[in-house]
Amino acid sequence: MKEKIVIADDEPITRQDLREILEIAGYNVVADASDGFDAVELCRKFKPDLVLMDIKMPLLDGLNASKIITSEGLAGGVILLTAYSDEDFIAKAKKSGVIGYLVKPIDERSLIPSIEISLSKCVEINRMKEDIKKANKK
């Protein structure tokens, strides 16, 4: 199995469709959540390599959940999934620390390459963080 992924979306059919696409592609979908609070808790439990996170969810939205996940280092990275492509949402996404932004509807042709690139960038970023820690110790 490939990297561990958590899916967070308040629409059950979207979670099911994403899970199916990812599992067929060989990814290990370790959990899915219907709101941001559950997404954060699942990330604490599973430490996924990547989270696919809807922006608009009840209780805790995807932007705020992403901020928590990235600031606490609970996942390798977060890709936001959204029906919104206006400048305001993009600006907020930039501030939330995410590594990717995909506009719905999502299809396999755009999802899998985005995941692969994002996972690659997550590895690079984590390597740089480790190098900085080592340099600071010296």
TrEMBL record:
Residue positions, PTM 4-aspartylphosphate: D54
InterPro entries (UniProt xref): Bact_response_regulator, CheY-like_superfamily, Sig_transdc_resp-reg_receiver
Sorted UniProt keywords: Phosphoprotein
Residues in Response regulatory domain copies: 4-119
Keyword Phosphoprotein found: yes
Alphabetized Pfam families for the sequence: Response_reg (PF00072)
GO biological process, one term: phosphorelay signal transduction system
Annotated protein name in UniProt: Response regulator receiver and ANTAR domain protein
Natural source organism: Oceanotoga teriensis
